[in-house]
Amino acid sequence: MRLMRLGAAGDERPVVLADDDTVVEVGDLTRDFDETFFESGGVTLLAGEVAGRIARGETRPIGDERIGAPIARPHQIVCVGLNYRDHALETGQEIPAEPILFNKAPNTLVGPNDDVRVPRGATKLDWEVELGIVIGRRSEYLDNDKDAREAIAGYVLVNDVSERAFQMERGGQWVKGKSAPTFNPAGPWLATPDEFSDVLALDIWLEVNGVRRQDGSTSTMIFSPEFIVRYVSQFMMLEPGDLINTGTPPGVGLGFTPPIWLAEGDVMTLGITGLGVARQRVKLEMIVDVHAHLWHQERDITDPFLGEAARSRSGELDLTTRWELYRAAAPADTVAIVFGGKARASGLWVPDEEVAAFAADRPDEVIGFLSLDPSQPGWRDELIACHRDCGLRGIKLMPMYAGFDPRDRDLDDLWRYAADNGLPVLSHTGTTFVSTAVLDYAHPGLFDEIARRHPDLTLILAHMGHPFEGECLAVIRKHPRVFADISALHYRPFQFWHALRLAQDYGVLDKLLLGSDFPFTTVNGTVEGLRRLYDVGIPGLDRLDGEAIERLIHRPSLSLLGLTT
Q1: DSSP states of 253-303 as a string?
Q2: Which band of pLDDT confidence, cut at 50, 70 and 90, is reported for residue 312?
C-alpha cells in the first residue's frame, strides 16, 4: 500500500494511492497519517476498506493538487551519517564501525515538490538523496532484526538537504547544518514493506538541473534498515511516525573538486525504485515589500510638493523611481507592492494605467495597487475600471494629502467594494512634509471606526502612523484584518526602536509588515535598520526579540493580505 497526503501546507488530508494517477480518500477512516494512526495499526486496518473502494471504482485523479509529506510532522527525525561505503570513501573518511547518528529538526519536513529555502547566511548548500524509514510502533531496546523489521511501517524518498558551512565550520554537532526549515522534503508516498521484494536492491539517484549527480544502490549500505532501527532503539525510544534518514550514496556537492553548491533557482530531481520521484527548486527566503512608489517625477509631482519633500529626510531628495535602482538595493527574491498616488490638493497624480503596465511586465516581482482620491469626481467609476480592466489588486489612499475624512459615510461604497473583491487597502497615516496636507486626517485612530463598520476589510496603516505609533498599535491590536507597515521609520532609529518596543510589549509584532517607502529609502536600508536595533537597550528593559524581528523581515505578507504572485 502507498500512503499519501494531499492539500495545502498545514491542511493536508490522508489518501491511498490506487495507481499512478488516482487515489482513494480515507479521511473518514483516519484523521491523518500520524503517531495515533501508526500506533493503532492503521496500515493493517486500512487495507481491506481501501481494496473494497478501489474495486468499487471509488477513486479520483490527483490532478494538480499539492502533494504533502506522506506523514504528519514526526516526534523526531533521526539521521545516519556515512552509511554508504562509496560515500564514506568520497568524503575521505573511514567506514564507520557503528552508525553515526544525529538529529534533524522535525519542522524541516515538507512535501516532495516544495521549494527548498536558502537560510540566511548560507553559502554551501548541498543535496543528499536518502531512503527514509517510518517507524510503525513504539520501540525501545529491540533484541533482533526480526523485531526491528516488524517495527517498520514503511519507506519514503527523502532529500537530506544540508548547509555544509553550518554543519562543519561552526563548531558543535551536525544538527546546525541540517535543521533549517524545508531541509527535509519527503515523498511523494510512503510504501509499506510488502511493496518491496528486497529493500537492499533499490536504485537511488539525484540530478541537479538535469545533470545526474548521485547514482547508487541501497545494496552498498553499510548498515541495513533493520540493523539501524535496532541500533537506534538502544539509545532512544522510537515513537510511531518517527522518521529515520538512512544515509546517502556518493555524488553530494561536497565530494566534488572543487565542491559544487546549490544556488537560487537550481532544481533537484531525485528518486528511488518504488518510492517515486520528487522535484525541489532552491529559493531564497522571500521578502515582501508592501510599500513602494512608482511615478515620473517631472510629470506626476508638482514643484511645490518636490520642494517640501526635502523636509522628510532633512535634505534634498532624488525621488526618481527607476526599477533598476530598486532592484540594486533589495534582495533578489523580493516581491514589491507598487502604487503611484493621487492627491490633487497636494500636487501628486500618477495614472494607474502606468502602474498596471509596470506590474504586468513583472508578474513575478510586482503586485500593482490602484490609487484613489475620493475628493475628485468619478472616483467610483475609476475604482471599478482600474480593478477590473487594469487588473490592479489593492488600493492606496492618501487622506491627509487629498483632504478627505476616511470616516465619511459617502466612502462606504469604497470599503464595501474592497472587502467584497478582496482588495487590501493601504492608507497613509502619520506625519507629512506637505504644508497643505490636513493633519486631522493623518491619525490611525480614524480607521478604528472603519474596521468596526467593515470587519471583513483588510487594511494596512502605513508608516505605523508615526509619530502616533501607540494609536496605530491600539487599532491593529483590536482588529484581526488591520495591519501596519514599518516604512519610512528606520532613519529615525530612536523612534523606530520605541515603536517596535511598544509593539513587542502589546504583543502585536506579528501584525507589522515590511515596507520600504521607496524611493525615500530602500529594502536593504530598511532591513539593515531593523537589525541594527538588536543591540539597542535600556537598563532594566528587555531588548527587542531578534527572532521576532527576523520573522517580520520574512513575513508572508502576500498570504496575510490574500494576495499571491
Answers
A1: GGGSSS-----TT-EEEEEETTS-EEEEEEEEPPEEEEEEE---HHHHB-H
A2: low
Q: What confidence tens digit (pLDDT) does each residue in 208-250 have?
A: 999 999 999 999 999 999 999 999 999 999 999 999 999 999 9
CA distances from 379 to 208, 278, 374, 423, 450 (A): 52, 50, 6, 16, 19
Mean confidence (pLDDT) of the chain? 93
**Cβ-contact 392, 359 below 8 angstroms:** yes
Domains of the chain, earliest start first: 2-61 (no CATH), 77-284 (3.90.850.10), 287-560 (3.20.20.140)
Q: Which three cell numbers stand for residue 314?
A: 532633512
> What pTM does this model have?
0.59
C-alpha grid cell, residue 258: 572543487
Q: Which residues in 136-226 belong to E strands, given as ranges?
A: 152-159, 162-163, 184-185, 190-191, 203-208, 211-217
pLDDT in tens, 466-490: 999 999 999 999 999 999 999 999 9
Going from the C-alpha of 492 to that of each of 108, 235, 309, 319, the distances in angstroms are: 37, 54, 16, 19
Number of Cα atoms under 13 Å in the Cβ half of residue 363: 3
Is 225 in a helix, a strand, or coil?
helix
Of 88, 87, 104, 107, the closest CA to residue 96 belongs to 88
- Comparing 124-133, 161-170, 415-424, which segment has the lowest mean pLDDT? 161-170
Q: Which residue carries 465619511 as its cell?
A: 408
pLDDT digits (tens, 9 = 90+) for 157-188: 999 999 999 998 888 888 999 999 999 999 99
User: Could you give the angle at the alpha carbon of 561 between the alpha carbons of 379 and 530, nearest 5°?
Assistant: 110
3-state secondary structure of 179: coil
Cell numbers standing for residue 32: 491523518
pLDDT at 565: 47
- Closest by Cα among 500, 493, 482 to 541: 500
Whether residue 504 contacts residue 532, with contact meaning beta carbons closer than 8 Å, is answered with no
For the chain, percent of residues with pLDDT exceeding 70: 98
Torsion angle, CA of 349/354/360/364, rounded to 10 degrees? Answer: -50
Residue 63 Ramachandran class (φ > 0 left, ψ -120 to 50 alpha, else beta): left
- Report whether 397 contacts 427 (CB < 8 A): yes
Residue-level length of the chain: 565
Cell of 163: 548547509
Q: What is the mean pLDDT of residues 310-319?
A: 63
What distances in angstroms separate CA 266 from CA 95, 209, 212, 262, one per listed residue?
A: 31, 6, 13, 6
Contact 380, 413 (CB under 8 A): yes
Rounded distance, CA 34 to CA 233, Å?
A: 20
What does R_g of the chain's alpha carbons equal in angstroms? Answer: 28
